[in-house]
Structures
1.
Amino acid sequence: MIGRIVIDDVRPRTPTRAYPAKAVVGETVTISADVFKDGHDILAARVLWRPTGKPQWNEAPLAVENAGLDRWAGTIVPTTLGRHELVVEAWTDRYATWRHKAEAKLGAGQDIATELEEGALLLEARAADDEQLAEVAKILRDDKLTPHERLAPALTPDVERLLQGAPADQGEIAASEAVPLWVDRERALFSAWYEFFPRSEGGLQGARNRLPAIADMGFDVVYFPPIHPIGRQYRKGPNNTLTATEDDPGSPWAIGGPEGGHTAIHPELGTFTDFEDLVLKANELGLEIALDYALQCSPDHPWVTEHPEWFHHRPDGTIAYAENPPKKYQDIYPVNFWPAGDADRKALWTACKDILDFWIAKGVRIFRVDNPHTKPMAFWEWIIPAVQATNPDVLFLAEAFTRPKVMAKLAEVGFTQSYTYFTWRTKRDEIVEYVEEVALGEKADYMRPNFWPNTPDILAGPLRNGPVSAFKLRAVLAATLAPSYGVYSGYELLENEPMSDTNEEYFHSEKYEVRRRNWDDPRSIAGCLTQLNAIRHRHPALQRLRNVRFHASTNDNVLAYSKVSDDGADVVLVIVNLDPWSAAESTLNLDLPALGLPWDAPFEAYDELSHQSFTWQGPEPYVRLDPHHDVAHVLHLRPLS
Amino acid sequence: MIGRIVIDDVRPRTPTRAYPAKAVVGETVTISADVFKDGHDILAARVLWRPTGKPQWNEAPLAVENAGLDRWAGTIVPTTLGRHELVVEAWTDRYATWRHKAEAKLGAGQDIATELEEGALLLEARAADDEQLAEVAKILRDDKLTPHERLAPALTPDVERLLQGAPADQGEIAASEAVPLWVDRERALFSAWYEFFPRSEGGLQGARNRLPAIADMGFDVVYFPPIHPIGRQYRKGPNNTLTATEDDPGSPWAIGGPEGGHTAIHPELGTFTDFEDLVLKANELGLEIALDYALQCSPDHPWVTEHPEWFHHRPDGTIAYAENPPKKYQDIYPVNFWPAGDADRKALWTACKDILDFWIAKGVRIFRVDNPHTKPMAFWEWIIPAVQATNPDVLFLAEAFTRPKVMAKLAEVGFTQSYTYFTWRTKRDEIVEYVEEVALGEKADYMRPNFWPNTPDILAGPLRNGPVSAFKLRAVLAATLAPSYGVYSGYELLENEPMSDTNEEYFHSEKYEVRRRNWDDPRSIAGCLTQLNAIRHRHPALQRLRNVRFHASTNDNVLAYSKVSDDGADVVLVIVNLDPWSAAESTLNLDLPALGLPWDAPFEAYDELSHQSFTWQGPEPYVRLDPHHDVAHVLHLRPLS
C-alpha cells in the first residue's frame, strides 16, 4: 500500500531489483526517483544511505531534475567498500507550500489574513527549536503592520533553513524500499589492462622483468592467461591443430596435469616464489596482477580422477569432453556444475571458491573469468558475493562474449566488469548506438564495460591486416570512450595477421605457441598507448562512464564525443577519424553549454596527443584528420580568460 | 536465489510489479519472458495461468520469439472476469537437446554410439507412459542396423510428442514468480463514448429520448456530467463568470445542494424513476450509461454540515475553498482525503465508496472519474479494487489530464482507461511518437488510452474555428488509432468557437449554460461518426490497441497506419490528410509482409468511407486526399485471388 506521496523507480538499480547496482569509492553517484503527490503542495526529498549494517545514515538532498516528469535527483559520494543501502524519503514541505501560497496571493493583491495566521501557527509549532521563530510568529500576527511587513521576516533564509531542515517535523514522511548498492574500489571503474602470456617472456621471472615497461606505458592491471599446468591428452598444436608435438606448449586454457590443477603453477613458468616476487614487483610499480579463472579441466586435471562426479558422463561411464555438435573439444572436460546430488554440488562449488581463496591469499585481487556464460548463473550469483563478503576489494571481469541478455544478467548477479561488443563496433552509428546503450542507458547502473580492441581470440574490424593508424584509432576509442579498457600484447607491435578471411583468430595464435617479440621494434606504438594512459590519468573526465556525450559531425567517418568530470572542471573532446586509410574533413556541431563553454567567446582546444593548441569559437569547428599524421584529437577544452 | 534456468521480465506487467497488468475477456494476450540457461541445451517453456484462487491451471506454450535476445512468447485468451495469475515455467527439453546432438553428429559423419545409448535410456525412462517408447528404445540399441536406421524411429512426431509433452518428467522446472493480470470485460478496451449534458435535452426524460439517435450513430457508452444537485453559493455564470443570475444553471461539477449530494438527482433533471427508465432504455438499445464521479462539494453539499471534518479548514475554523494561488475556486470545497484521524479517513473513504455502490445498485457499471490526480493515489489504490472485488464488471475512466508519470500511475493502481494527450497531438510526428508510446510501449500493458478529439473543457488544435474537414479527420484518427474513443456532443454540429485565442474552453461553454441544439442541422457529421462506429464494429482489427503500425509517407501531412486482427484475417489501413485546408498527395511505403500481403501480386484496397475499391500492387501506392471531398481512406486490404 502506497502512502500519500508516491516514490517510484529509485535508481541506480538492476532490472529485477534483486541485486545491488554498482558504484565505486569516490564516484559522484546520481540517485534519482519519481516523487509526486496529488494537489499543489510543494515537496521535499532526500536520500538516506549507509553501508549495510551500520547504524548511522548519511543523507543528501534530492531536488527536482525534471518537473514535467516528476523526476528528482541528488548525488552521493561513497567512501567505503561493500554493500550499501539507499532509501529515498519525501515529505510535504509545509513552509515552502505556505510561503508560495502567501507570496502568490500577496503578489496578486489578495487578502492574506488566513496565510498570516497559518504561518504564525507553523512557526509556533517549531518555536521550541529556536527562539527567533516565536518572535517572527508574533510579527505575523501584528495587525499594526502592513501585510507585507508582517510577512517579510518569515521569508528570510534563516527561517527557511530552520523550517525546511527537519523533515521529521513535517508530518508524514514517505520512504522508498531500501535499494542495495555495491561499492567497489575505484579500479573497478577506471583501469587500463594489459594482457600477456608469461611463457612468451620466458616464464614468471621474465614476466617480472617485463613489468617496468608495462608500468611505464601507464597500465594499471596486468592480466595473465592461466598459469597452471597444461594437459597432455589431446593437446592442441599450432593454429588449433589436433596434433601437438612434444615441443608444443598447448593452450593454457587446457588446465591441469600431473603437476596439479587450478592451484598449481606450470613448472615451466616457475615457482610460487617466482609468483610472489612477481606480485611484489607489480605492487612496487603500482600494477596489479589479474589471473584467469577458467573453470574447465584437461583430461589430466587431478579432479578427473579425484572427483569424477564433478564431470559429465557418457552412458558407458567415461567422462564426456566438450562438444557443440558437430564441433568437438577433446582437450577439455567441462565441469558439470549441477551434479545430481546436492552434496556433490556443494563440494564442487566450494572447491571452486577454494581456488579463488587460494590465489587471494597469494595477493591476487582481480580475476578475469573465462566464459562465464557456460556456467550456471546461480553459481556466479553465489560465488561472487561469497568472495566479496570477506574480500570486498576483489574484482571480477566477465569474458561474457555471448547474447546481450546473458551478458547483462552476469553483470546483474555480481560481475564487476564485462567485456563487450566494442571489438566489433567499428562504424560511427554502431559505436554511438552501442556506447549510448552501455554508458547512458539503464545498464550502466550495474554493468561496467571494459573495451578491448583485441584479445588473443579476436582480431577484428580494421585491425585485420590493418595499418598503424587502425591500431592507433581503435586504442584511442577504447581508452577514451570507456573508463576501463585493455589490450592484448602485440597490439603495440601492430600484429595484424588473421587466421583466415573468415576466422577472426590470429594466425599462429599465441594460445598454441610461444611468441617471442621484439619490444624495441621501431614501428611500436607503445608511445601512443603511453600517451593515452597518461591522458586518462591526468583527466578525471576520462575516468567516468556515464558522462559521455556525442556531438554531430558532417562526415560519417568522423566521430566526436566529449566527457566532463563530475565537478565540471575538466572537459575533454575526442575527435576520431574512423577511416584508417584516408583523410577526413568535417564540421562539428558541439553542444557548447553541455561543455560549460560560451556561445560567443573563444575557447582553447589543446590537443593532448599532438600538443597543438587551437583557439576555437562557436559550435561548429572544422577539423581534418589525415591518418598518416593524426588519427584523432584528444582535446582539453578550456574557456579563454 | 535463481535456479539453473533464468526467467526474467515476464510481461505484461506494471512498472513496479506491485499491481496487475490488464487484459479483456476474449483478447489474445501475448505473454513473454527472457528465458535462458548456460550452455547449449535446448529449452522449452510454457505459461500457466488461472483466475486467482481457482485450483486449476490453464497452460499455453511459449516459443522463441527472438533468439538473439532470449525472448520467448506465447498467447493466452482469458475467458473470465477478475484477477488472474500467470507463471512462466521453463525446463531443459532433454529430447530436443539429445535429438539435435545426434542429428548434428550423424550429419557430420561422426560416431553416434553414445547418442544412441543416451536416446535409449531417455526413452526407457518414459516407457511406462507408452509401450511404443520401449520398442523404439530397443531399435536404438539394435547394432544389426545402421546408425541411421537405429536413430530414425526415435525422431518421429509421435515420439517427439510423447517426450516433449510432459515437463514434469524433464527434471528441474524453473518458474517465475506469479504475475498478476486483471481481466475486464471487452468494453474496457473497445468502446465508443458519447458525452452530453442531460439538462440541454430537457433533463433525464429528454436524455432518454435522445438515446435512440446515439445508438443509431453506433456509440456504446453514453456519459453524463454530474446529474446531482448544484450549489447556489458562488455559482458560476456564463463563460465562467463569478456572478450567476437566478436563471443560470451553474456548473454540474459544483455538486451538492439542499436537495442532496452525490447520491441525489438534481430535481430539475428528474427523478430516480426517470433515471431507472433511462438506464432501461439504454440497455434496450445496447448502450451503457456512464456517470461522472467527481469527489468535490459545493458549499451547499450536505457533507459540509454533516461532516465538516472531511474538509480543509482555515485557522479561524471556516472551511477552505479550492485555490491554486492566485487562482480561487470559491464554488468548490475540495475534500480533505487525509483528515488527521484514521477513523475520519476511514469514514470518508467508505462514504466515497458508498456513492459508487449506490449507483452500481442503480445499474451503473461505468464511471468517468473527474480529476483523479487531485486525490491521493492511495485512495484509488484502495477504492478501485474494493469495488471490483464484488463487481469485476465496473470500469473507471480517469480524467487524468496531468503529468505523464501521474497519468501512468493512476492506470497502474487500477484505472481501467485514461484520457490522454491525444487531444493536443496534431502533427504527424507528434501523433506517431505519442501513439507508439501509449499503444506499443510498456505502458500498454496496464494503461488503456481513450482518445477524445474534444471535451467540454477542451477545444484544441485544428478544431478551433476549424472547418468540417478538421472535425472529420480528428474523428477518424480517434476512432481508428485507439480502440476506445469518445466525443463530447456538439462535435457532430462542428461547434468550433473558442473562448479566446489563448483559452481552450468553448465560448459559452455548456458547463455554465444550457445549450439547445438543432440535431437536424444539414451540416451535421453524425453520418460520418455513424460510419466510423460501424467500421469499428465490423473490423476486429480496430478493436485492439497494441496492433497499430505506422507506414512511411512522402508527405508530412499524410499519416498512414495499419491494424491487423489477432487472427491475421482482418487488415485495415488508414490514411489521413492532417491538413484540413489543403489537398495532400503522397506516395506511401507499406510494410506489406506485416499486412499479410504479397510483394508481387495485386491486392484490393476497399475504402470503407467512400465505398470505392482500388487494386494496388507493391508497397508504394500513391494517394491524394482533398479535404473538400475526403479527409481519409479507411481501407480494408485483401489479397486478390
Note: The first strand of chain A starts at residue 5 and ends at 11.
2.
Amino acid sequence: MKISGQIIDVVGRKMFPGTVTVENGKITDIVEEPNNSTNIIMPGMVDAHIHIESSMLVPSEFARMAVVHGSVGAVCDPHEIANVLGINGIRFMIDNGKSVPFKFYFGAPSCVPATTFETSGAVIDHNDIETLMAMDDIHFLGEMMNYPSVIFNDEEVHLKLEAARRHDKPIDGHAPGVTGDDAKKYVGAGISTDHECFTLEEALEKVKLGMKILIREGSAAKNFDALVPLFKTCPDKVMFCSDDRHPDDLIKCHINDSVRRAISLGYDKFDVIRAATVAPVEHYKMKIGLLQKNDPADFIVIDNFKNFNVLQTYINGELVAENGESKLAHIATTPINNFNAEPVTAADFYVEENGKKVNVIEIIPGQLVTNKVVVDRHDPDVLKIAVINRYQKSKPAVGYVKNFGLKRGALASSIAHDSHNIVVVGCSDEEMAAAVNQIVTCKGGITAYSKEICVTMPMPVAGLMNNGDGYMVAEAYKDVDKFAKNLGTTLNAPFMTMGFMALLVIPSLKLSDKGLFDGDKFQFENLMAE
Amino acid sequence: MKISGQIIDVVGRKMFPGTVTVENGKITDIVEEPNNSTNIIMPGMVDAHIHIESSMLVPSEFARMAVVHGSVGAVCDPHEIANVLGINGIRFMIDNGKSVPFKFYFGAPSCVPATTFETSGAVIDHNDIETLMAMDDIHFLGEMMNYPSVIFNDEEVHLKLEAARRHDKPIDGHAPGVTGDDAKKYVGAGISTDHECFTLEEALEKVKLGMKILIREGSAAKNFDALVPLFKTCPDKVMFCSDDRHPDDLIKCHINDSVRRAISLGYDKFDVIRAATVAPVEHYKMKIGLLQKNDPADFIVIDNFKNFNVLQTYINGELVAENGESKLAHIATTPINNFNAEPVTAADFYVEENGKKVNVIEIIPGQLVTNKVVVDRHDPDVLKIAVINRYQKSKPAVGYVKNFGLKRGALASSIAHDSHNIVVVGCSDEEMAAAVNQIVTCKGGITAYSKEICVTMPMPVAGLMNNGDGYMVAEAYKDVDKFAKNLGTTLNAPFMTMGFMALLVIPSLKLSDKGLFDGDKFQFENLMAE
C-alpha cells in the first residue's frame, strides 16, 4: 500500500510532499516526491494518561471509538477496576484490550484502596505490585496519589515505588499543589510525570525538578487553557491526556482536539504533535510507530491543521477508521464483576429525629472539594445521601447533602470513587431504596429514578462499564443524564458529582460506606452536629 | 354563583340564552334571559364503560385528567385489578375514587378469572358477586364476557346473573359477533348493553333485541366510524365509551372528542349530547346532574360545537377544570399489590433444541387474534415469548412469537390480560431475564430493556397502575414506548400487543403461565410441532 500527501516527520521536525509505503504492517519506505494531495500524513496520537473505566466502556469498545479521532494508543491506569476486582480486574482490561489493534499500555494502580476508611473490593499491596511489575503487560506504576506517604516515608508505599524502579518502569505522579521540598522529595522517589497541575507556575516548578507535565483536558478536569503555554518554555516536557473521558465526550473528540487547539493558538506544530506522539511513546517505551522507516504503520491522514479532520487512521497498517466511521467491529464481552449487595428498603435510610442539627456535605458546583456545614436537616435544599457497601450485604451509611438540587426522585450509581460502592441521593427514603435496588438488580449502573419513570444504564462489567455498543452507551448516558436533570438537579454532571461524594481524600466532608468522613481532620465525623 | 351563556336543555331538547344559578353544589335556578356570552353551558359528560386500570392511573388521578375534557363521571368495571386482588382490589378502586369529586360508578367484574388455564390472583365466584351486588358502592354487574356459558346454561354464570337481577342492578354485555338465537338468549338473561359491536348490522340487531349500544372509541378498539350512524336510526339507544384509555391518549381527549365528531358529522346535537349524558345517567341510575333545576351542579362550559373546547368543568358546583388545567390536586396513594415473583435467570428461558419445528404465535398487526403457524425457531423474525406467574415463585412458560419485530433487547410487562402475570418478549435469554427482573424489582410495570439502557415505568399499584402524577405517567408511557420502538419493533403499541398475547379467550394461539394454549380447540398445545 502506498499513500501520498504532505508527510510530517515529527522526529526530524519537517513536513514534505511524499509517499509512504506500507507492507506487512510496517512502513517500508518514505519517499520525498511531489504529489497533488493536500492531505497531511502524521503519526497516530496517544492519550498519555486515562482511566478507560471513565468511558463506561470496555477497552475494546473504547478503542473502536477513539480510532475515529486519530488515536492509536493510550497509557491506561486501571485504578477503578482494581479497586473492585484487584489483579483479576487488571488482567481483564489487558486481555480485553488485546482483542483490538489499538495499542493499550496498562500500568499497575499504586493506591488500592485509596483509604482504610471505606470498604473496597480489593487491596493491592507491595507484593501485588511486585507481581504486576514483573509482568510484560504492565508498563508503569500508576499515579501515586498518596503523596503524603511518599513524603513522610511510609514503608509500604516506598516498597511499591522500589518495585517499579527495580523493574525500570516509569512511575506516574499525582500531586496537586505539592511544591518546594515536598515536591523535591516526591520527584526524588522516581516519580516522573504529573497530570494534576492546574496552574502554570506549579507545572513550571515541577518541570524544573525533572518532571514531565501532562496537559489534561477531560470530562471532569480541564487544564488545557492554563497549561498550554508550557509549549513556549519547555515543549519537550509536555504530553496530552484526558484522564477521564465520558462516553458522550468520547463521541465528540479525543486528543485530536487538544492538538488542533494548540496549533491554532500558534504554537509550533512539531512541538504540539510531538507531545501527542513522540513524548508518550518514548517515555512509556510504547511500540507505536512514529512515521519513520521500519516503524509499525501507526499513522493518520488529516485534511489540514485548521480543521484537523481525521480522514483515516491506520494501526499496524490496518485501516481502523475512515471519515468518522470506525472500521473496528463491536466485540461481545463477558462481564466480570464483584457485586454482592442485596435489595434495601426505605426503612434502611431512616435517621432518628432528635432535634439536633446535622453535619451536611455542601456541594460546590463544578468542584470536587466540599464544604462542611451545620444546618437543619429540613432545610429545603438538604437531601439525604447514602453509600452502601456493594461487596457484601450491608446497611446504608446515611448523610445529608446540600446544593444537589433534586426536586423529586433519586439518583444512584455504582461509580463512587474510589471503592465504587453504591451512592444514592434522593428526595425520599422510598425513592432512594428504589433507585438503589435498580443498581442491585443490574449489578451496577447509573439510574435516575422517579415514581413515574426509571431510566438505568446497566454496568455489569465491574459495576463500572457497560459491555454494549459504545455509541449506544453514549446515547444511554445522555438519556440517563437528561432524566436526572428532569428531576430538578441543576448540577452540570450530577452522576459525576455524586460519584465524588465518596472520595474521602478530597476535603472537607465526604461519606463512605462506613460513615461521614472529615477530610480535613482525616477521621470519621458524627452525623449529628454538637 | 351565576353563569350565563347559551344553555343546553338536553331533556327538553332546546338551547336558549340564559343564566344558571348554583348554590351549595346544586342548580337552584335556570332563567331564560338574553346575555352577551356565546359560550355554551351543557351537562358534564360520562364515559359509559371504562377499565380505569387501562389509564395506568389510580382513579383519583384519572379523574384529575378527565375533568379537563369535560367528563364528570364514569361507569367503571374494575376487571383488571379484580383479577389481581379480588374484592380487596375493587374496594381499593372505590375508596380511591371517593377522594375526588369525580363521580365514579363501579361495578362487579363478572368473569374473574377469565379461564382456568392460567393463574390469576383471585377468583370471584357467585357468592362474591352476591356480596358485591349487596354493596351500595357497586352499581352493576360488569361485562359478561363468558357468553358461551350464558348460552349453554352454565350454573355458576347464571347464579351471578341472578344475583344482579335480584338486586335490580344492570348487567353489562360483551358478545362480539353473537347473533340470532344466541343473542336472544344472551339478552334474555337480562344483559342490557354491548360495547363490542364492530359492525352497524350487529349493533342494529342487538338494539332490536332491546340492548343499548355503547359506541367505543378507545386506545385499543375504535368503533366510532362504524357505529355513529346509529344516531340516524335509534339515537335513544346509544351511549359513548372508551373501554380502554392509555395515559398518553387521556392527555389528548376523552368522551368530548366523540361528541364533537358526531355533531360535526351533522347528527342532531341533542341526540349526541344525550348519549354522553342522559343515557348513561339514567341507565346506571347515576347521581349526576343533567343541568336541570335542583340537579347537582355537574356541568361544563364550552366555546362552540365546532371546536368543542371545554372552558370549565363543574362537579357539584365546584370548578374542577378550567381552560385545559385541572383544578384537582394530585393525591398521594399508598399502593396495594399482589406480587410475589422472584428474580429469574437466563437459564430459566432455555428450550431444549431437538430439531423439531415449533408452534409459533403469529401476530397480526393491529389485531388481538393471532395465527398459529409451524416454523423453524431460527427464522429471523421468530422471538421467544414467556409468561411468568407473578403470584408465586415459578418457572417461565416459554413460547415463540412471530412478527413482533424486536431487533435487540427485550420488553416486559405486568399488564397481561386477564390474569396479569408477567409477559416478556426478547432477542436473547439474558435480555429476557434482565427485563423480567426489572418488573420483579418494581413489583410491576412496563420495561424496555437493552444492554445499554433500560427504561421502566413502575406500576406498584397491583402491578397495573402507577401512583404518580398522571401527566408525568403519560410522558413516562410515551418514553418507554419510544425506547421500545428504538429496539426495532414496528408494532404500533408493542406493550398492548404483548399484553394480549396472554389473553387465552381470543384465538388462535396464546401463552399463559401454564403453557401454550390453542384458543380454537380451547386446550393446551405442545411447543414442539408434530
Note: Chain A has a mean pLDDT of 97.
